[in-house]
Amino acid sequence: MEAITKLLSDLVAIPSMNPMGRGRLGKEYSEQSIAEFVAEFMRKASIDAELQQVSPGRPNVIGFVSAGAKETLMLEAHLDTVFADSMLIDPFDPVVRDGKLYGRGACDTKGSIAAFLQAVVSSLKAAKRLRYNILLLFVSDEEYRFAGAQYAVRQGLNANFGIAGEPTQLRIVRAHKGVTRWKILTKGVAAHSAYPERGKNAIYAMAKVVDRLQQYAVALRAVHPHPLLGTPSLSVGVIEGGQTVNIVPDHCWIEIDRRTLPGEMAEDVLKPIHSLLSTLEECEIQQPHLSVAGMEVAESSPIVQILKEAVTSVCGEAIVEAAHYATDAGIYNAVGVPTVVFGPGNIARAHTEAEYVELEQLQQATTIIERLLSS
After folding, report:
1. Is residue 375 pLDDT above 80, yes or no?
2. Which among 109, 158, 177 has a CA at the least distance from the CA of 138?
3. Residues 189-248: pLDDT tens digits?
4. CATH number of 178-292
5. Is CATH 3.40.630.10 the right assignment for the domain spanning 2-176+294-374?
6. β-pairing, 72-78 with 133-139?
7. For the whole model, what pTM was predicted?
């Protein structure tokens, strides 16, 4: 417990907030420092490790342990966190209290990083015979664009199956929804608000767009549901337009979040939107700036079964379920690497003002991965 607690404390103490496209600068809005720490931790354990520069200051970390095995298991989690602006605790001064470790990222997902790293290092120190070669992959920019995972795939990811670390309370998530996000713009003509008839109001034009999208969102809830995930969904999450109140707005834009079912592709999402808005000349539908597929791994698949066995050996039972959020696992499954989601912590504590992970779950996660690797 002492070793895993120290490792997680060290990780939490290194800010790695995602700038989320908001132009925030500085090393605290970068994964560079934490990536270097993780790479050095692996090298000290004689694990081959390297940084993979996804974009300036935004690297992935890749480590590999060869066991001479026929199959390779990927252990993956993301390095970045959300902002810490509204936190009620010091986000980067990890504190242990009442069996919980507090700090930004403790739950999402530095707890998973710590558990994966400690499990591998402990297995190597104990000279245990490993069942699999191990690919350790810790990626950047998951919270905003999933860029790190997508980059790793483009570079030729090589694994037979994988586990994506997220706070699942040690439950095995074998299916989850995907997400596609894009913007729609409307253009108008600016004029003095005392003479609105001389202009063309882009916000009024957008109101028609939003009205049709709302009707479509209701219709989506009536489609035939997936047995585990229910129906797809659509939400308009951001709207922005105009310059000032006394000028007729000449521009407006919205951002849409569409949760998809396994098998739905970006083109499947956009085609009905183009049809829906085809009679509105004022609007421009942009291409998605994010599209991550939903995923479903059969319960009978090897990765589900070996993880169930390891979880049961530690916790007494293994719960297999589905989730409505999206993770990097959707990207890996899309390229033929069956990947489930698993890790310590409760998703309800992620991104919160007093984020924490329970240390008992952290230790259990570490033991589960150790047993999976060597039993």
Report:
1. no
2. 109
3. 999 999 999 999 999 999 999 999 999 999 999 999 999 999 999 999 999 999 999 999
4. 3.30.70.360
5. yes
6. parallel
7. 0.93
